[in-house]
Sequence to fold (620 residues):
Amino acid sequence: MDEAVAEYIRRTVLKIPRDEIKTMLEKWGFLSETQLQTINFHQIKDNISQDVVQLCEENSADIKQAAVLDIIYNNIYPNKRVWSVYQMNKTEEDTELFDLTDFKKKFKRRLRSALKNVTINFREYEDNAIWIRIAWGTPYTKPNQYKSSYVVYHSQTPYVFISASVLKSNLPLLCQALVVASNYHDICEMDLRSHSLNSLKDIVFKRYSQNFQTYYPRPVQEKNVAPASADLRIVQENRNEKERIQRVNREVFGDGPQPKLEFAQYKLETMFKSDPKMDVLDKKEPFRCLVKFSSPHLLESLKSLALAGMADAPLSPLLTCIPQKARNYFKIREKKGLFPGSFVSP
Amino acid sequence: GVLAHLEMLEAQAHEAAVKEEETEQQEEKLASLKARVQELRLQRDELRAKVDLQQKEQLGKGGVTSDLAQPSARAVLEWKIKSLKDMLQVFYLTGISGKLTKRGVCFCISTAYEGTYLDSYYLDLLAKPEVQIHRHSIPIFIPLEQIAKKYLQTDIRRFLFVLSDHLNAYVGRRYQADQLQERFSHQIEGTLQRNSLCNLLVFNYNVSCQNKTFPFNVRLLYGDLCCSLPTEVIISCTPDTPASLAEMAPAHSDLFRRTALHKAFRSFSSAEES
Fold:
């Protein structure tokens, strides 16, 4: 077995939390049950990984099989990477009969015709997600397995989720291969990025909870519930206001959990508005400014702003439109016309 | 001559198409009328109950007043809530229900396949300045924009019916594929290749003859997105399959084209048992 492959497998196993190593190796299926039983999973990770490499040596693992283990790891821990969403377009409107074998063949052919030194692996999952792992080389060097790119694609949808590696120069080639393989015409990057792959999927596939008004009997939340220990000395002065805020929040954000985004960025190119007498800026130039909101869970925190009394409800549509517009990077320019204000560029 | 014959065929085809359209429209009409009938029946029951209640009240007042004869206000309220819920349930059961919103209508399309209720999808429409879709929860692989471009502005009812057809067919295909994977996994060799729309399924299944099993490879193409049965079935078998088994392929192909996937497999297992 290749030294490089052995080292790669060793390092991949080291990344896995110790309690998960056994399950992941079972999912991998490269080592047999009997082989797995010979490993002591209670020793330190260093030793476990050495044992695993030893067994892979017995089975003569090659880089393709090692890459599968890497895909499995990234599929279980996708939040360690930053994912961007790309949208593909096509003009023909014929019925899509997506054939997986066809897709894989076209993708590999396109990539390999441009770059011989690539490692390409596919893995399909229950939810129709196709995971593609690409390790990039150059015409003169072997693929760098440690800086591989990941693509997640759901068939018959126009969205692709890409976690590119540092080697951004290979991105155009990757995009081209995707377009060709999936029978689309072109692809462009959306302004939507996050660590949470599932949340990105929720946003573009519209799987997040939107509050639709329907007659379908849903469990009605009782309003005037007397609190368990009603202390009559405490009077809720702002009960109406609180209820209004709750209602508005519900209309905007819905009832369910919000998709998980870490930041929203607004690039302002608007004119600075000040008291004409002060005349702060001589030139009438847009005041360039970047506003960035960061949070471990941005949308949930926005949802709780009004309830916590830190902001007025309803919140600015610039903040609440994020899931619906499927973007968290905005450019705000002056609205040209009679009413100076701001408008969000599409 | 030939041209005359062609003309005649053309005319026949045209007639057939017109007839088909007519029957389609009639079916749509029938479905909506049936829903209306349900609605009216519920209303009638409500009114009957009201009348009964009033009569009982009259009796209660005229005769010996006992607390039991006169229903309490609470009981009346409960009964009202129940009949309202029943009414809403009827709307839900017809598959397409709507609610007026401040700026338009919000529709809920409920899907079902052969008696099993499956997912519900929502469409929030705005009425002004023109009918447009504000928000929705339709899966991304359903060709919503195409259908909207064709019908949304001109015929909302048609739009909803076509969309409902797409959604019902999709959940039907998905249900069949899921059932196959869940209940007949022992007969499937390897993995079942599918896609998001479940309109192309490729898999191998075992056919046995004298205690030996041979794999048949089947490719199910669902060319019509509004249909939950395949339009094309291609079955192939390995060269070493005995001729007696290979001859069964066209029969299998026919079965897949006519019956639901899981039902076809159920008939295979029962055929083997007999």
